[in-house]
Fold this sequence. Notes:
By secondary structure, this protein is α+β, with helices and mostly antiparallel strands. Helices cover 37% and strands 20% of the residues.
Amino acid sequence: MPAAPSLTDWFPPGLVDELLPALGEWSPVPRPGEEWPFEAATRARVLAQARAALGEPWPALPASLFARFARDGDRAAYQAPWDARRARLGRALLALAASGFSDEFADEVMDGVWALCEETSWVWPAHDFRVLDARQGLLPDPEAPTLDLGAATTAVLLALADAIAGDALDARDPLPRRRLRREVWTRVLGPYLERSEWGWYDGSTAKLNNWNPWIHSDLLLATALTVEDPAARSALVSRIVRGLDHYLAAQPEDGGCDEGPHYWWRAGGSLFECLELLTSLLGTGEALFAEPLIRDTARYPLLMWVGDGWSVSFADGPARLREAAPSVLHRYGRRTGQPAVAAHARALRGSADPVLPEDATPYDLRRVLGALLDPEWRAAGEAAFPLPAQGWLPGTQVLVARETQGTTHGLLLAAKGGHNDESHNHNDVGSFLVAVDARPLLIDVGVGTYRRETFGRERYGIWSMTSAYHNVPEVNGHGQPPGREFAAREVRAALGPGRAALTLDLAGAYPAAAGLRAWERTAALVRGERARVEIRDAWRLDAAPERLVLRLLLGGEVTVTGAGRALVRPAGGGRGLALAWDEAAFAADAETVVLDDPAFTRVWGAAVHRLVLTARAPAAEGTHVLTARPSG
């Protein structure tokens, strides 16, 4: 496969110096006096939402709320009012534009800008350097701001406030506009340019994941809209280009995202926004969108789509997408000349408002504006999901195959190899998922509400991260440990019209104490009149194990229907999944896994189930076949 493109070659510093427009010469929003393209229904919703908050106090962010993360690991208590403040300012800015810059909303915008500028820190508690070092304290130090997702998100919101409402603010008092530019520089752009401890920039202290393109997309727009000094503007843009090169160099050549489809929208999606903005600012580089890696990255959401709101859910992230931005994907598909990508994006939108879907949260002003100001997106006619028959990502080591191209009816198999140090990793080498009629029934449960433990040393004490709650074996009492060295071996895929299969050796994903010499697993979707999924396992150990277990996590009600037979039925009706195994070799036990975390219950309900198949007389060598068929 071709290497990742070098953005520094496309946009060298000399070219940036030459082509970068001065502050005020470029804008992503209509100029004063130009029309904003609000449809009547969207305009009415925007105005109603903003009016509902007028006169209400702004959510408070007391120090004790920030300190909760250090004290008990809770990060949501602070982030909820933090989000609410930014959502309120975003709504006020949209309402100001939708009202024709009426005085009704100008003070609301001024209040929001001032409130954000008065915050001691824009960082989320879980990311602050000082707080993460428990020896230093509970609270952020404004003299040494951390640059994280929260700080970058705030910077770009204030930058958009400058672009949309700067003149309205100046008409009241020029100080808020001057102050927001100063705060954006002091808290975000200056530290980015002047300090080097950002591991998300080059991978020096952290994995290169969605943080890199997400933060860079915000920094780039904030630079374009708030930085006056030409030398600083150019220096920032060139550093951002180099930072994105670090990210691209670390990406698999297949365009996959080992963080899963939930995070793709802030990984591949934000990468596209960076490239889109660079080419717009500099007026060059359009051919970059023909680069193979850039094109392949756009196709990832199509392959991972199960249907009816469900996605393949390896790694952290919910199996039901929550924060997709289909207008971004639609532009991505158009810019890369891929109608199927654009069609998938339009299908994701369905009948929702193209600018403000009912479930739009958290309020992302940048992406709302992108949808509002894209006439092709707003006018796009209905489209069906492309639903490719199959795909294999050799770098990410993920296979997805459906029974019939173009329809969600029937079976879908997703299987993975990889290693146990992926971004947002679960210990799941060799795991697989099976859906029937767009309903996952053999599942990965995903991740619970983020807390301190989620990204700390306690991560693999969380049940949903462990191999015991993924569809992989347990050998001699050992599951899969975390670590890059615990990886699949001899991974190969075979894709054909009648069968799609992933074969790999799981032995390398287990510690030496498990005694495994080899464990070959083949996960296959067999098409045709007797369509089925087959999981074939063949193992060889140093000696007969004391215990050998196959575990299956189930997203529906399970009933053991007979010897070597079980039925999994989805909540709410529909076809189920009939499972069959070798009853003479494996005894079965069905368990209930009670869920009480909202991050789980909103996807799976009050419980999932686990089918535990335990070898009756475990031997040093053996084989087994599990089959799964649709059941009416």
